[in-house]
What does this fold into?
Amino acid sequence: MSEDHGGPVTLKPIGEVAQYLKNLIPADIPGSYTLKPALENVASADNIRNGVLAFRDFLYLMCDRLISDGHLYAKPPKKPKTVDDYPFIPYVANLLVEMGYHGILSDNGGTLLINELPSCAGPKPKIPPSSQAECLRFLTLSGFVFTGKKVTYPADPGVLTGLKALAVAEIELRTTRRYWGDKNMLRCDYRLLKAEDPDMLDVLKDFLHPLPEEVQTFALKLHQRYTYMGMICSMRVLGDINFAYAFISKSKKAMSPTDIYSLSLWQFSISMKYGYCLVMRPKKADKYADIIAQFPLSLQELIAKGYGCDRKLRNEPCQHGCQGIRIPLDDSILAISRDIETWLDSEISHTTKK
It folds into this structure.
């Protein structure tokens, strides 16, 4: 065990971590979309789109391998910092990015020629030599074939084109900072390739797809209701994934996803530690206490408890209470769905009053 902001960390089994990663892979990737000009030299548009689909299928297979055999490769650290702190996973993610970005794709798309992998080079490589060997064995188990400097994927050579395109997008087209431990490559973020700005409703649908249908419907209804009222929805990926909703005043300064997150009134949050949650950040609850009094007792107690630093408020280990009031986004939320709408409406009404 280790400490996470003052709270104990219990590592999740690798199979659960792998299933979580698998759930983040888009279930529905369109067969046709316009690509950004930066990808013109990678391959034809059709080959890139087909390659992305092939790479998505590889990721499904890789996650299944992690579920069944991950314990043989993903060794836990002595002092985990997070519930999913398996160094092997970011090693694989970074290795895939570097294979795709630095690899030279053959004219027929059947091989990648690898001349450099920065994370594996130098006297103190970011990926230790023993872990490099484990990563390559695992990728071989997942379908890759390594022959000297050549890499192939015999079951579906299109995987290499998808890998190349997504790696170029990761390095050159991302607007958010990459960091060591970043696992974005394992999400098959095909929207980085698209010339059009992403539709946040479609993005949200992708992330909600593992949830029960009625829960998905409720969540999408909240998104549509409050964006129609003028709230901005911004997706922030920094370990956890957050769809943050905020009213943004007219300003000449462009706001980053982190800026919008910091101003958000509520969020959908997806994390390995807490799963899928609705996170509320009420500031004006005292202004509509009469309405809160009509809610179910369990919800009243949750609101009364408030949010903030767990150590300062309740002398408890950190449970990331500063993020807001966390409500599980599962079947249990359906019984209070109307109360949540009333709660949000009341908070918004008092927040936006002049």
User: Anything to note?
Assistant: The two ends are 49 Å apart (CA to CA). Residues 112 and 151 are 5 Å apart (CA to CA). Residues 2-193 form one domain. The mean pLDDT is 90.
